[in-house]
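Dig into what follows:
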Amino acid sequence: MKTLRLGLLGGFLLASGTAAFGQLAVWEITGANAAVTNPQPAGSLATHVAGGSLTLGSGVTASNTTDFFSANGFNTTSLSAAISGGDYLSFTITPAAGYALNISSVSFNSGVSTAVTNFNASLLSSATGFNPAGALHSYSFATTTPPNQSITLSGTAALQNVTGALEFRLYGWRDSAGTSTFRLRTLSGNDLVVSGSVNAIPEPGTYAAVLGAIILAGTAIRRRRAA
C-alpha cells in the first residue's frame, strides 16, 4: 500500500510538469549597441520560453557605443526619482502558452562610462512592483566596472509560477547631481542571464483525475484494513 501511495503521489507531481533548472534567457553583450539594435532579443532561450527582450527606459537615450547596451540621461539622485523619471534598463522574458516561469536567479555585468561617487542601481520586477519597496537587489559602486551581480531569487514567491511576460528593470541614479551613462557591459561568458525552470500548466482535468485516483486508493486501503 505504501508503494501505491508513493506511486500516486509521484503521478501528481509528474502532472505538475516541473522541468530541470537552467538558463531561461541569455544575452551576450559583445557587439551590442543600443543605438543600433533596441530592443535586443535574447541570444538564447530555454525550451518553452517564447521570448526575451532587452530595452531602455522611457527617461534615457541610447548611447552609440559598441560592446555595451547603454543609455545616457541617468541624472536623478534617488531610486524614487529614477522610477518616476523612467531611468532604467529593462529585460523581459515570456513563457510559451501553457507554461509558467520559476525564477531562481539573475546575473549581469553592469557599469558606467565615467566613475562617480557613487552610482547606485536597484533591480525591480513587474511581479513585485516598480516601487522602492519592491526592490529585489540594490548595490552602489564608484568605479566604471563593478563586480558581476548574481542575485538569488528562488525564495521570492511572486517570481514563481509566472504565466505571463515578466519584466525586470535595473534602475540607476547618482549620489550627487550630474548625468551618467549606465550600461550592461561585455565580459568573458554571458553578460545577462535569467535562470530558473519552466513547468507546464496542467489542464484542470489532470488534477481532477489524479485526485480521484488518490481518493479511490485511500478508500481501497481503508476497506482492506477493515476486512
Observations:
- The CA atoms of residues 11 and 55 lie 41 Å apart.
- Residues 2-15, 206-210 have pLDDT under 50 and may be disordered.
- The first strand starts at residue 22 and ends at 27.
